[in-house]
Design goal:
Length: 286
Amino acid sequence: MSIVPCFSCEVCVGPTQAQCEAFSTWLWSWYVEQRRSFVWREQITPYIVFVSEVMLQQTQTKRVAEKLPIFLERFGTFNELAQATNAEILSAWQGFGYNRRALYIRDAARAIVNDFGGILPDIPDILCALPGIGPATAASICAYAYNKPALFVETNIRTVLLYVFFPTQEKVADPLLLQTMRVLVPQNNVREWYYAMTDLGVFIKKEYGNHNRRSTAYTKQSKFEGSRRQVRGGILKQLLELPNQTVEELAIALRRPPNEVSSVLSELEHEGFITLSSQALWSCFE
């Protein structure tokens, strides 16, 4: 296997055109032998790309690969997804984490159906107006769904850029990396080029460590065990399996203090996940 090339660049300037061309030539030759296969790469539709990109925001690729086909069986189109109730979409989302994304993706589908006739827009600025879609995800959707040369940086691409073009610099900011991407991203076959970059990023992390620590965008994820995120997820899971529970019943099931559970319940109610009946029983909001 070829050794990943490194170029020494001035941190305030970035790589030269010649360095970018040399790297791109190497990248294509590496990718021919190393390309990974996923459902969203082999069945390319705007809908599948949209769903998979939202899922991949904060969920490991392996888990998305396992659960995406099941999700698509239940919600196979924007129309079907738009019609999902809170309970239905949250149930289908179990295992992905960050349940707020479940409501976002459903609400985004509703906007796509109501405002765009069920056709996914191909302009990043328009996609950014959808619930839960930020600039990077909007650009990635355009690149993968429509093969458009939209610019974005995510964790694996950031890894490649740092390792290859800024191998010794610390605190490298994303604007500089995006400046580098303007030179790197081809005008044709954009989708496969981004696939190659993400695959190389995974390889570099495995073989050479996590170079994202040298990015100003790097943040260490907080521990999940015992966290408020865990309690939130646990409550939703309990209420999806058995609606109409009291604070005390949930506290016992989760083995958490009633005051903590009550606080999280209020938070989830405010966000539209759950509802409280007149009998002081909690259920997922329909």
